[in-house]
Amino acid sequence: MVNAIFDEDNPYTRDIWKCPDATEWNPDRNTNEFISMLPDYQNGYQLIPVNWTINIDRKKNYFNYLAAITSD
Questions:
Q1: Which domain, by its residues, includes 50?
Q2: Going by fewer Cβ within 10 Å, which terminus of the chain is more open, N or C?
Q3: Cα angle value 22/23/29 (rounded, 5°)
């Protein structure tokens, strides 16, 4: 996801930000492509659902099982 959109004026670093098709950096193109992807982002495109909570029974059971099969 994009955190900031800016125009690269530095001639020494401008080429770093070229588009994948090797055209020069274009802030308008970048903005347009970003906006065109918003529906996919809203629908969870490439979103990995993860529950980071550790204190639920399912995860406790997993860690207990892991400890049992890896202990001496």
A1: 14-70
A2: C
A3: 125
Which of 43, 46, 63, 67 shows the shortest CA–CA distance to 55? 63
Q: Evaluate if pTM is beyond 0.70.
A: no
Contact 34, 5 (CB under 8 A): yes
Ramachandran area for residue 71 (φ above 0: left; ψ -120 to 50: alpha; else beta): beta
User: Domain total for the chain?
Assistant: 1
Collapsing DSSP to helix, strand or coil, 46 comes out as coil
Taken as a whole, the chain contains a residue count of 72
Q: From the CB of residue 64, how many other CB atoms can be counted at a distance below 10 Å? A: 10
